Amino acid sequence: MNTPPMPPRAEGADGSSVRIGALVPLSRPGWVEAGRHLLAGLELAARDVNEAGGIAGRPLELVVRDTAADPRRAAAAVDDLARLGVAALAGEYHSVVARAAAARADALGLPFLCSSAVLDALTEQPTDWVARLAPAQSRGWRIYADFLLGAGHRRIAVAAEPSVYWASGARILRDHLAPRGGTVIELDMRALTPTAVCDELLDHRATALLLLVGHPEPAVSLVKSVRRDERLARIMIGAPAGQPEFAEWATSLGDDGAAIPFLRYLPERLGPLGARVETALRERLAEAPSFVAFEGYDTVTVLADVLRAHGTDRARTAGSWPRVAVEGTRGQIRFSRTPGISVWQWAAPPIQVVDRDPAEPGRFRVLHAG
Hints:
- The protein is an alpha/beta fold.
- The chain is about 40% helix and about 20% strand.
- The protein is built from 11 helices and 16 strands.
- The strands form 4 sheets. The protein has a 7-stranded mixed β-sheet, with helices on both faces. The protein has a 4-stranded parallel β-sheet with strand order 7-6-8-9, sandwiched between helices.
- The chain is globular, with a radius of gyration of 21 Å.
């Protein structure tokens, strides 16, 4: 473990609240809807912890910071939260932002339980200060690649913007598909318009187009262009990063947003805890909760269990990751070391490939599970 000089203890020894820093994208260019769902899960779990007696009788308090999908802003927020004496960090949705937060948390000796970001290389070097609930990108995107092969797709185009996250995803797809007879054709969205993408799909005889781009743009324009091009009536559009999960997608695209498979981290059927939390999240959000909201809930649930068992000392919290055994909304959560992953990883979160049903875009269909 990278152990810095004696980090401050979290507030709470005098009977005041025990504080957790929450990193959430709540303003543009961050994905605000994802941030809203993540925060709803974090807040609901904090409420439930406090109704059950808090942390050794002290209330749990979330100290929320908006990262706005900005890595520098996230790193500054980690510094600020560390100075405030939080016991641990929770949250973040965007992988590149989570990577900046994880690096700073590691340097400061501040435990960070990452909720949603999937980038394998969340830190440059192995660390004991950071753990993660979301599956590693290499696992989820390989499952998505298996889905593509099972659906008969061998020539797959990816419309990609420059990003560590998108480049990592394209590499995972290429490495997994190539030995199995698949080809990945990369289309650089810095140089192509949505209309030009349609021509490229024809030229390369692609049967699937994956959106490795931001939302709403250029994702919405790409979908509309492909859907309206009669030459591409048989092409499948996919969005492995999960853009169609959120209501904003359906609002922006209507029927065009259906039948676009994406990765979702939910089990086939929720257990009693998951079902209760789903009902509470639906009431809080005034809409169906996404998997991101469940990730937020599970994050605080795990941290509360650790803080109850080991107190608010930061080094003890970081040292407890391998001993975690917590029943979350989507199964029992345990952390382990996974080859190629630099942080403590929940190795078995559920993974599904789903889409919105063309006959009823508000309903999701499970197409594949891994």
